[in-house]
Amino acid sequence: MSEPKKLFIKTYGCQMNVYDSERMAEALGGQGYVETQSADDADMILLNTCHIREKAAEKVYSELGRFKGLKAEKPDLKIGVAGCVAQAEGEEIMRRQPLVDLVVGPQSYHRLPEMEAKTRQGAKALDTDFPEEDKFERLKSRPKAKRGPTAFLTVQEGCDKFCAFCVVPYTRGAEVSRPVDRILTEARDLVERGVREITLLGQNVNAYHGAGPMGDMTLAQLIWQLDKIDGLERIRFTTSHPNDMGDDLIEAHGTCDKLMPYLHLPVQSGSDRILKRMNRSHTAESYLRLIERIRAARPDILMSGDFIVGFPEESEADFQATLDLVEEVTYGYAYSFKYSTRPGTPAAERPQIDPAEADDRLRRLQALITRDQRSVQNSMVGREVKVLFEKPGRLPGQMGGKSEYLHAVHVDDANVEVGDLRRVRIVDSAANSLRGVLA
Ligand code: SAH
Ligand code: SF4
Ligand code: F3S
């Protein structure tokens, strides 16, 4: 038998890309590839890219440039670009960087094996279609290998919301939900392979409406189906849109024990004027009332969110409204970004604000967010949480994992193993993690 070919995948961007990279590795496994952790000994390099901000997209080209020497040494090396930059820029990538052999958009990953074969014949391969067939169905190769205690599972993909700043509706296409039975089969398979926590993924995951045995199911109904799987201990989902937060999903946060008390609910701005210009179709007030209802169902839920500062036309008063909203919510985690102009999106055509002003606002917002993150994390000291242990910590004898609230927790205890779910009393809070002892 010939030696297996080696595949190096580098993943950028969101969790869906992480999930997709696993699927691509499995698909190419059928072509005789095994994964390697270094580009140097690879026969194929795949960059799974992100187009969300300009910096993310440009990084791809500097990364590709670095493979020049490698390709010169090894003419058989194939270089591919997948993900959202592939979808957005297509053929242009090969024009800008001729050493690229293959460009594949997120909806065409099931065609990778044929595309790889084409590059082996010396041709270039390009596919950025939005095909009719079910890529997930064709992507399941499923080697029964053991895996770690946590996993992602894509249940919904694409977005019909068209926020004025965002490329996702163009790179991932229209919203599509996977059928319930396929998701349950995949979840059971993950659990058989050692997974105890599943994070359901979708660009608009709470808009999920997949076909079930008796008509479409909501995300909450899907979660209740997953709840029945023995051995699955924890369920999470991301990312949600405020407008799709159904009553049954809010209720599930209070009644489903396996559903973790953490919710990522991006708001983007606290100014109604800006929200409108962003095409967000919710107000600051409606968002705050929604959080009130969620907290009524699950008082200890940890809220997380996303913000954009420096959106076109954002005034100091608009920005102040964002700070006020952050003060009111007290996020346990929040991610804030300086607005990045994305070609082809409606906001790109509008007058942009002074970048120095935007930098200053970003600094001020991040200071406030950091303050709240710290205080929420510090408030865990003295409490008992449950930790799913994922990997050894930095020091010998240490084991690290995540609490229900997604805080990183480590214990110094040689008796704890990867995959254990244990009660832990928190004794200390450091910059980015908590320290605990088994309770
Ligand atoms: N589907 C998710 C997240 C999409 S991208 C949602 O609807 O919330 C993740 C985050 O990137 C967004 O929430 C937003 O805060 C940020 N983002 C998206 N486009 C951006 C842009 N053009 N500039 C800066 N940040 C952006
Ligand atoms: Fe982008 Fe808005 Fe869709 Fe989220 S809801 S993916 S921010 S267009
Ligand atoms: Fe980036 Fe595409 Fe995800 S643009 S954030 S990789 S959906």
CATH superfamily of the largest domain: tm_1862 like domain
Low-pLDDT segments, ≥5 res: none
- CATH architectural label of the largest domain: Alpha-Beta Horseshoe
Q: Quick one: biggest sheet?
A: 6 strands, parallel
Average pLDDT, to the nearest integer? 95
Task: Assign the CATH topology of the largest domain.
Answer: pyruvate-formate lyase- activating enzyme
Helical region count? 15
- Report the C-alpha radius of gyration, rounded: 22 Å
Strand content: 15-25%
**CATH C-level category of the largest domain:** Alpha Beta
The helix/strand class is: alpha/beta
- Global shape: globular
First-residue to last-residue Cα separation: 52 Å
- Helical content stands at 25-40%
Ligands present: S-adenosyl-L-homocysteine, iron/sulfur cluster, FE3-S4 cluster
- Can you count the beta strands? 21
Q: Give the total of domains.
A: 3
